Each structure stands twice: as structure tokens, then as C-alpha cells.
Amino acid sequence: MMRVSFATLAPPALVLGCAVLLVLGNVVPAASSPFHVPIFAVSLTGKYLAYAILALALDLVWGYVGILSLGHAAFFALGSYAMGMYLMREIGRRGVYGNATLPDFMVFLNWTKLPWYWYGFDHFAFATLMALVVPGLLALVFGFLAFRSRVSGVYLSIITQALTFALLLAFFRNNMGFGGNNGLTDFKDIAGFPLQADSTRNGLLLATALALALAFLLARFVVLSRLGKILIAVRDAESRTRFLGYRPESYKLFVFVLSAVIAGIGGALYVPQVGIINPSEFSPANSIEAVIWVAVGGRGTLTGAIIGAVLVNLGKTYFTSALPDFWLYALGGLFILTTLFLPRGLVRLFEAKPVAALSEVPATKARAA
């Protein structure tokens, strides 16, 4: 049985602890107190943690299996749309047109009835389930076709980018029934709780932190298990692993689907905190940014993916407000500097120096031992 170590529990405990402190900083001190945490900071942190879930999902396939996916934003966006559809159904008669059956954008486009694929999204549990099932099903079909054909390397990366770009174009169409280029917005409440209330915002932050902690523990369990050793073998020597009797495509498919489901969870938690979802979330640039998060934090570390997502998005928040024209240059420069000087990421800087193996010990010392 695999023992749970301090290194395993420390990151999720730290995430949950910071989230609790932020919530207490918003609830306990008075608004005039210097220790008061404004509600926008709570929502912004929840957004960062949702991005961290996406980064964790990407690191699972890229860092441990060697699949560089440039389309993981698609799974994140599908989870977002699933929750967004529920939030639109929750509006009911409070919309601009007062239609209890159809969302406002459908009324504006003269739709006469609700499309069949919107059925069930008036229930929170169903929407949550779809936020997991839809990204997982897409990853299952896509991964089965790609891995069965033994597509790998840069070719697979290009195909994943083409996938998310195709979804971007599809969701931009008004006749798809997802709000077109405007997307879904003007949400009122979630599970009966008003989204603009501070208590709801605090609860969403805690829920996102908990989801990130559980996703980390699940990913950690996978990579430290016997399955994880096979995944690393597939990453480092796929041909040799196949010659030993394993089927690399099956292991790739399993982790790819698991990663898509985790990304969908992040997307579902992202939407109620930002208040909108539109086709721009499918943009290939978003997937590339996620790759940069993982590279900066440390590919193949899980912890590094979370740190990279939070730090890079903190920088993005600053630069896009203070120096909006400079952000893309800063992002590109950050990726170049990381590639040249920190190829193993920030987290690797704090790793203890590994003990030399017996084969590296001088022969005289080995004989003396």
C-alpha cells in the first residue's frame, strides 16, 4: 500500500489553508480595516485556482506521458459551457424577455423551442455531471483515434490545436445554440445562492480550492502508483515499453481522458466566478498559455504546474492593467527565458541534490565499502 507522505499532503493543505485565510480576511475584519480582503480579490483568486486545475490536468499528460497537448483549453471550455448552460436556465423569468423556457439569446434569435441538448440543464447535478462527461467523451473519441493510429510528437500537438480551433469556429455560430460570439452571461444565482453575494463568492473560492486539492491528490496517486511508472516508461521509451508487452496507446488514452475530466472540473468552477463564457475560451492561445504555466512552474512536478499557473496569471493581471501593450512580449520573453535558463521550471530550483548512485561512486570507494 502506498503511504501518504508530507510532500503529498503539503500542497493541497497549503491551497486550502490560503483559501480559508482569504475567506476569513473577507468575513471577519471590517471593510475599513487594513486586514480586510476585498471580494474582488477573493473572486480573482478563485479564477487563478480554476486555471491551476487546468495546468494540473495538462501537466499530467505532458509531464508524465509526454503528450504535448495544445488543445487542452477545449476541455476546460466545454466544462465551462456545461455549467454556463445551467446558470442560464437558472435565470428563468428574470431575463430581459421574461421567458421561463428559453434563454434571452434564443428569444432574440426567434427560436421557438429549447434544443434537445439543453434538456436536463435546469438541474445542478446534471450540469455538473455533464461538465465531466462531455470533455471526457471528447477526449475518449479523439484519443482513441489518435493513439490507435500512433500519432505522436509534433503531429499530435498540431491535431490537438486543430481540435480546439474547430470548436472555436463551431461555437461562434449562432445556430449552434450556445449564444454565438456573445456566449452565455448575465447569470443570477447558482443552486439557489445569488452569485453577487459575498458569501457565494467565498463559497466558490473554497469549492475551487477543495477541487484543486482533490485533483492534486488523485494525480499524485496516479503518478506514484505502478501505473505511473508505466506512464513514465511510455514517455521516455515508448518502443521499449511496447516490446515488453504493454500497450502504450491504452495508457495514453486513460490519462488523456482523466486529464480532460479534471480540466472540465476547472472550467465548471471558472464560469460562476468570472460571470461569462464565450467561444474565446476555445482559443488556441489559451492552450499555449497553459503550456507556459506548466513550463514555468516545472513540467512533471504537479506542484510546479499549480505554482506556474498562479504566478503567470498574477503577472498577466498586473501587466494587462498597467502595461496592456507589453503583456504578450512579457509572456513570450518569459517562455524563452524559462526554456534557456530554467528548463526544469521554478520548482526544480528548490529540490535537494540527489544522492549519487553506486555506479557513480569511484571504484576505490565502492571496493572499500
Give an account of the 3D structure.
- 66% of the residues lie in helices and 2% in strands.
- It has 14 helices and four strands.
- The protein has helices spanning 6-27, 39-65, 73-91, 104-108, 124-148, 153-171, 198-224, 226-236, 238-243, 248-274, 284-297, 303-322, 327-341, 363-368; strands at residues 184-185, 189-190, 193-194, 276-277.
- Helix 2 packs across helix 11 (284-297) and helix 3 crosses helix 10.
- The protein starts with 5 loop residues before the first helix and ends with a helix.
- The model is unreliable at 354-369 (pLDDT under 50).
Strand-pairing-aware structural class = mainly alpha
Ranges where pLDDT stays below 50 over 5 or more residues in a row are: 354-369
Molecular shape: globular
Q: Name the helix and strand elements from N-terminus to C-terminus, one letter apiece.
A: HHHHHHEEEHHHHEHHHH
The share of residues in helices is 55-70%
Number of helices: 14
What is the strand tally? Answer: 4
As for the number of domains, it is 1
Cα Rg: 22 Å
Instruction: Record the strand order, biggest sheet.
Output: 1-4
Provide the β-strand percentage band: under 5%
Q: What is the residue-mean pLDDT, rounded to a whole number?
A: 90
> Major sheet: size, sense and barrel closure?
2 strands, antiparallel
The CA-CA distance between the termini, in Å, is: 33 Å
